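Attaching the record inline, Q. Sequence:
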Amino acid sequence: MPYQPPVRDHVFLLRDVLQLETYSNLPGFQDAAMDVVEQIIEEAGRFTGEVLAPLNAVGDKQGCTWNPDHTVTTPTGFRDAYAKLVEGGWPALGAEPAYGGQGLPHVVNLSFSEMSSSANMAFSMYPGLTHGAYSAILNGGSDDQKDLYLPKLASGQWGGTMNLTEPHCGTDLGLLRTKAVPQGDGSYRISGTKIWISGGEHDLAENIVHLVLARIEGAPGGTRGISLFIVPKFIPDADGKPGQRNSVYCDGLEEKMGIHGNATCVIRHEESTGWLVGTENQGLRLMFVMMNEARIGVGMQGVAQAEAAYQAAASFAKERLQGRSLTGPKNPDGPADPIIVHPDVRRMLMDSRAIIEGGRAFLFWTALHGDLAHASPDEAVRQKAGDYMALMTPVVKGYLTAKGLDVCSDAVQVHGGSGFTEHFPVSQYMRDVRIALIYEGTNGVQALDLVGRKLAADGGRAVMSFFAEIDSFVEANQADEGLKPFTEGLAEAKTKLQDATMWLMQNGLMNPDNAGAASTDYMHLFGLTALSYMWALIAKAANARIAAGETDPYYANKLVIGRYFIQRILPETGGHLAKLKTGSELMMALPAEAF
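Structure, as predicted:
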């Protein structure tokens, strides 16, 4: 069965769980009435399911082609699909109306992005990175830069990239060598080589706008001396149209295990012409606007690939005949029962649904707070939402991508030997999702960011606010018998997370290696706690529907999956807490030469 966009789940989350219409008085939300949002999501499902999904295997098998003139040809069908994407206005969903966007909340745009990524992850990265470039210029560019670049980036007429990594440095950007020399006319000459640049060259858009980190001559060393530059493939002419070819070249494509349909490029800047964004030596701060948005998007990719892989596995399990049910034949007229009758197959499918549906809620909940951080007139709401965005971003990226890989791996396992072949789609999903644990900062880096910076920020204000919100929810719903499994599970998980937080505060300060050793387990403990909160919110919304007379099994099924999460997955919190409390002594005991 081909990928089916989960339209109903998206609508249920936005309408019932997050109650999007309660924010209708805020900018952007005013045009996001649920009947309108539902129409957008349904149309998004049609576009991604009918236009993008059929090209997923095509892109995987063909890949991109580098040409001797430094251009790149994308797989068959990608150009037509991209033209339809732009024609449909999909890239402009969440962009500012002042620059041709539709101004809808980011959480609505995220709904489209998830379906797009499930349907065709490699393709969806092109507009995804473009929106990141749009956001960086929106936050730091001059008025002239915004007027010139943003309308074309918002529409998708022009593409965008971010140029960070160099052959000798990845996460440690303080080591970068790309240099910028001022020309006296407001422009700079940019020289250096960047690697692993997704969408760095392609034939989809008429221009590509590279956002490049470089060091101006004489700038301080390390991260303090990094600036951000706009370097377009074609320098815009006086009318704002692509003009002279800039001296920025794709010197080759990476040979990758997945996302073959996306051009991952080696980009050479040979005294290319660029323009400073913002002020000198403030480039990393501006680039983090783009990177943090990308990290939320990468967490989304974990959920998206998991959804597609789960659908393929569930379909296979209902059709594949093998063995008999332990409690007697369920397909007595056939030679064997479908494998979905076997408890261990059910375990993998139920694990997958519990993670995907809880993870999607966490993703959307976090994105909604990102909207509130910008749109709310209430300073306290904006502060809390901003705190949550900072705190949750590494968890969304790190936890959801790790679990997305687990779901894809289980989907291969459900398929048995078939899953290890290229005749079935799950092999591609697993290969594609693997990069999500690595790029935009590896998951280990996300965990270090969480425990090293985000927890301690503003005296721990964000995490204390999260604990208080959970306590408030549990207290407000403790008399609701229908929610009792969820509130009890949530309260227990929160207690463990709080215990882990206190341990880190005491032992991490005493020995920083303790914080590093505990960081990944802490991130997973945080993710589990967040998903237990999401499942409590989902259960509350489903119970409300049932209490109102709904007989559709959809809502009762939500409760079953939620209780499964509480009983079968949430106990992992105890293991993570026990492991992180062992500290770093044994982890660091062996000398380096012993490895």
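The first helix runs from residue 7 to 17. The two ends are 46 Å apart (CA to CA).

More tomorrow.
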